[in-house]
């Protein structure tokens, strides 16, 4: 449905258009729910794995290196799956390929519960990670293509909230279930959200814009379209910088801040867990708020607002000493550090054509995820050689690069019609 049709549908005297508008909004809700559940599955699975590593190691006799490699290869699989499934989604369909990814994930997560040693579990986890990899980018493309232009940032931010919901669910459920059902049972529990996501997607079709462009998509090389000309290459570099900085900051904060609190202020594990929970809630609020503001003001101004906010709050956080200030400050810092993920879905969708939209979402975000994976390593290295304060200053400084990328590489296309 064109922008003109959408705008006319809300005016008196055009009742014939109203059913189209209702149908569009109904489909958009289903698409966003399906995408959000899929991304929640991503966060749920990765956090559960972190919680049960100790139990797996004790049962199967893994070394610390072997246990850590399960996480590493899950992420490697996710990056590979993101690239491949994003490309397949642009060729064969958003919903169809999302169902492929969820089936792959469900089967191999189920097999994890039957693992008898290191190598078979490593293979199962890697392939399950491949299945997870497509969730973010394809879900973002689906949500953006399903909704009206004036709702695009909000709808995309709801998909981003899925990760936080999945992380919180894992944090709440694992302490309750792990002592009862063990690590094998936890892998079995991980299959349940996958089944829910598959069922939800069964009731939605492909976006209209994808169907209209499918013949073009099958002829085009979606990877080449990310660097089709100088202007597009410039945009792609800008998006990679944005996603890299956001992931670098997110992992740097979430992995090292509990240790920082413990070392500097004597925080117990319980207090660190409380800080983590409150910070995640702050991040969730930041993602939601980003979508609300970006639809009203524009993408670039809100990215700049969050980037400046990240610099200020990360630096300010290092000067806090009161435990209550640290708790509240963690939520505010989390809002800016991770809230930017609420804007990628709309931004990338508006920068690239339908024939390359899911490829762009998954390739550019997963490059950022790969670069961001070095965040904890860099922060740890600086902290060990200098101090945690120096490491925090490092985290704050990277957002300056983000600001320059937004100012000089990213165009504003708020509410643009998708092509």
UniProtKB/TrEMBL annotation:
The chain crosses the membrane at residues 39-58, 70-88, 97-116, 122-144, 156-177, 183-204, 225-253, 273-291, 303-320, 326-351, 363-382, 388-410. It comes from the Bacteria. GO terms for molecular function: carboxylic acid transmembrane transporter activity. It is a multi-pass membrane protein. It is found in: Membrane. Its main location: membrane. One of its GO terms (cellular component) is plasma membrane. Residues 31-414 form the Major facilitator superfamily (MFS) profile domain. Keywords: Membrane, Transmembrane, Transmembrane helix. This is MFS family permease.
């Amino acid at each position: 449905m064109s922008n003109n049709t959408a705008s006319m549908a809300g005016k008196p005297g055009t009742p014939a258009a109203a059913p189209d508008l209702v149908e569009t909004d109904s489909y958009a809700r289903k698409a966003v729910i399906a995408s959000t559940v899929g991304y929640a599955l991503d966060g749920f699975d990765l956090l559960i794995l972190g919680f049960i590593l100790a139990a797996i190691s004790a049962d199967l006799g893994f070394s610390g290196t072997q246990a850590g490699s399960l996480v590493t290869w899950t992420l490697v699989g996710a990056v590979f799956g993101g690239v491949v499934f994003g490309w397949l989604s642009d060729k064969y369909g958003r919903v169809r390929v999302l169902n492929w990814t969820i089936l792959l994930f469900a089967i191999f997560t189920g097999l994890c519960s039957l693992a008898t040693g290191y190598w078979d579990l490593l293979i199962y986890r890697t392939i399950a990670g491949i299945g997870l990899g497509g969730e973010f980018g394809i879900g973002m493309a689906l949500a953006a293509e399903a909704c009206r232009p004036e709702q695009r940032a909000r709808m995309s931010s709801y998909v981003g909230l899925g990760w936080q919901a999945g992380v919180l669910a894992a944090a709440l459920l694992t302490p309750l279930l792990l002592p009862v059902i063990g690590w094998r049972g936890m892998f079995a529990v991980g299959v349940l959200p996958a089944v829910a996501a598959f069922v939800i997607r069964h009731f939605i079709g492909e976006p209209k814009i994808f169907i209209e462009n499918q013949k073009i998509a099958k002829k085009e090389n979606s990877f080449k379209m990310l660097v089709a000309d100088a202007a597009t290459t410039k945009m792609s570099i800008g998006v990679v910088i944005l996603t890299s900085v956001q992931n670098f900051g997110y992992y740097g904060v979430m992995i090292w801040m509990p240790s920082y609190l413990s070392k500097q202020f004597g925080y117990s594990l319980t207090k660190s867990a409380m800080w983590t929970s409150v910070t995640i809630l702050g991040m969730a609020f930041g993602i939601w708020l980003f979508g609300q503001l970006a639809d009203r003001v524009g993408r670039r101004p809100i990215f700049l607002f969050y980037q400046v906010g990240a610099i200020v709050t990360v630096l300010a956080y290092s000067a806090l000493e009161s435990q209550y200030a640290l708790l509240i400050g963690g939520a505010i810092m989390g809002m800016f550090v991770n809230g930017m993920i609420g804007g990628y879905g709309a931004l990338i969708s508006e920068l690239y054509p339908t024939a390359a939209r899911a490829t762009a979402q998954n390739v550019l975000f997963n490059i950022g995820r790969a670069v961001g994976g070095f965040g904890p390593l860099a922060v740890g290295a600086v902290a060990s050689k200098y101090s945690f304060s120096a490491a925090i200053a490092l985290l704050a400084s990277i957002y300056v690069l983000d600001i320059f990328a937004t100012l000089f590489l990213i165009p504003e296309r708020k509410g643009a019609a998708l092509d």
